[in-house]
Amino acid sequence: METLSYKTKSVNKESADKKWVIVDAEGQVLGRVASKIAYVLRGKHKATFTPHADTGDNVIVINASKIDLTGKKWDDKSYIRYTGYPGGQRDLTARELFEKDPVKLMEKAVKGMLPKTRLGREVFRNLYVYEGSDHAHSGQKPEKLDINTIK
After folding, report:
1. Quick one: CA dihedral 113, 23, 149, 102, positive or negative?
2. CA distances from 33 to 51, 85, 92, 106 (A)
3. 3-class SS of residue 30
4. Tag placement on the chain: N or C end, fewer CB within 10 Å?
5. What gap in Å lies between CA 65 and CA 131, rounded to an integer?
6. Coil, helix or strand for 22?
7. 115 CB contacts (<8 Å, ≥6 apart)?
8. What is the CA radius of gyration of the chain?
9. Which residue has the higher pLDDT, 8 or 79?
10. 24: part of which helix (H) or strand (E)?
């Protein structure tokens, strides 16, 4: 029996215990719920967190159309993009983007909170956002996750 042999286990993508969790965004504040979703996507809520590997869970977000923003962010917050042509800078307010596609608003918020690396892009693929309460992942048997209990 080796009592003084404590080895740090480094988890890789294959040995990670990835689960499917479902988050209800109804009545939640966009930034707060997005940071907690990014935390779960990275796997930081697990004891086996490894910074260089995708050890996080697959997250399904439902009711993205019932998200909330505080203060005057509906009109003051803007999302800027560039078409690639001269004079092609376009911007939308949070309200305009929400009316066009509420899923994009949630995805942009979560993506902005993930690392800007290959790993961040890989982790972002584990996010599934739906406008209503219906989703196509019932076969994975997702567990309900109370996002308010996380950090």
Report:
1. positive
2. 22, 35, 22, 9
3. helix
4. N
5. 5
6. strand
7. 123
8. 18
9. 79
10. strand 20-24
**Tokens 């988890």, residue located:** 11
Closest to 147 in 3D by CA, of 19, 39, 20: 39
Is residue 54 within 8 A of residue 16, CB to CB? The reply is yes
Report the side by side order of strands in the sheet with 58-62. 127-129, 58-62, 20-24, 143-144
Q: Which amino acid is at 93?
A: T
- 147 token code pair: 């996002």
Residue 38: which of 16, 61, 11 has the closest Cα? 61
Per-residue model confidence as pLDDT tens digits over 9-26: 788 888 888 999 999 999
For 47, the token pair is 């004891």
pLDDT at 8: 78
Give the Cα separation of 5 and 149 in Å (integer): 34
Torsion of CA 70, 23, 66, 91, to 10 degrees: 60
DSSP assignment of 104-118 equals: HHHHHHHHTTS-SSH
